[in-house]
């Protein structure tokens, strides 16, 4: 029996969830509330980044 391995690689966002959320909001504002196919792909990418993001950005002390 063969077992398949996932090829999905989870990435960690360099930006905070708040930063990504602001970009999502800007995308919706620019779109006027209706996303094109290209904008939907961008929205999905941003939502995945938002879900993986830290709540607060990492800052050097």
Description:
This protein has 61 residues and is mainly alpha-helical. It is built from two helices and no strands. α1 runs antiparallel to α2. The longest helix has 16 residues. The relative contact order is 0.23. The mean pLDDT is 82.
List the helices and strands and how they pair.
Blueprint: H1 17-31, H2 37-52
Helix pairs in contact: 1-2
Distance between the termini: 52 Å
Biggest β-sheet description: none
How much of the sequence is in beta strands? under 5%
Instruction: Bin the helical content.
Output: 40-55%
Structural class assignment: mainly alpha
Radius of gyration: 15 Å
Q: What is the general shape? A: elongated
> Counting H and I runs of at least 4 residues, what is the number of helices?
2
Provide mean pLDDT, rounded.
82
Count of distinct strands: 0
Order of helices and strands: HH
Unreliable stretches covering 5 or more consecutive residues: none
In short:
The protein is mainly α and 61 residues long. It is built from two helices and no strands.
For this entry, give a set of tags.
mainly alpha; 61 residues
């Amino acid at each position: 029996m063969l077992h398949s391995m996932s090829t999905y690689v989870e990435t960690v966002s360099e930006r905070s969830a708040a930063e990504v959320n602001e970009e999502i909001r800007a995308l919706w504002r620019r779109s006027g509330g209706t996303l094109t196919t290209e904008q939907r792909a961008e929205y999905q990418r941003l939502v995945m980044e938002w879900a993986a993001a830290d709540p607060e950005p990492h800052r050097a002390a």
